[in-house]
Specification:
Blueprint (H helix, E strand, L loop, with lengths): L1 E6 L3 E6 L8 E5 L32 E5 L3 E8 L5 E8 L12 E5 L2 E6 L10 E9 L7 E6 L5 E12 L11 E11 L11
Parallel strand pairs: 4-12
Antiparallel strand pairs: 1-2, 2-10, 3-5, 5-10, 6-9, 6-11, 7-8, 11-12
């Protein structure tokens, strides 16, 4: 199924959603900046994964992309959990946005995350929000194309996070799992530069 997502100032991005998915996730494309195991771990700590005990082994991978172009984003969910994904881009790792803020609810198992607000018209540094929202288990990889802003940005951080609903939270990452890729963006001189990045 083809599902469009509107982004302020960056045009349209299109999401190819598999028929059915899972929860912990692996970042398959672009290449992750840290080594991931079969579940995608370590991925708990903001903003780009790792844990207190394991900050992650750097891969040294860098993806080159043209500004104003579409970039393939592919993940594989490895443990099911309802929720959604968000994609952001920042020049520095500490400029990435805070995790989505959980709205809580009381359940017979104690407090659980109900949902996190989704930006229907995201602004920098968020590129896309509410991606791959799911309430049912799905199978297979998930892929989409995201519009990259037309900027020059060497060593930028592209962040993909998964917000989990119906979850009690965990010490190192709250309700969110995190992955990042390092990207070198070269502006397309035939297009106007995007501001705000």
């Amino acid at each position: 199924m083809l599902k469009p997502f509107l982004k302020t100032g960056l045009g349209l991005a299109f999401s190819l959603i598999a028929a059915n998915s899972y929860g912990h996730f692996k970042l398959n494309s672009p290449a992750s900046w840290i080594e991931e195991d079969e579940r995608g771990d370590p991925q708990k700590m903001a903003p780009c994964g790792g844990t207190v005990a394991d900050g992650g082994t750097r891969t040294g991978s860098v993806t080159d992309v043209m500004g104003g172009a579409m970039l393939r984003l592919a993940i594989e969910e490895t443990i099911y959990h309802p929720g959604h994904y968000r994609v952001a881009l920042a020049r520095r790792i500490n400029w990435l946005p805070a995790d989505p803020e959980a709205v809580m609810k009381d359940t017979d198992r104690g407090p659980r995350s109900d949902y996190a607000p989704v930006a229907m018209e995201p602004v920098a540094p968020v590129i896309m929000d509410g991606l791959w929202a799911n309430q049912e288990r799905r199978t297979g990889p998930l892929e989409t194309e995201i519009a990259i802003p037309n900027i020059d940005c060497e060593g930028c951080f592209l962040q993909v996070v998964q917000f989990m609903e119906e979850h009690p939270g965990f010490r190192e990452g709250g309700f969110t799992y995190h992955h990042c890729a390092v990207v070198n963006i070269k502006a397309n001189t035939e297009l106007p530069l995007d501001e705000g990045w």
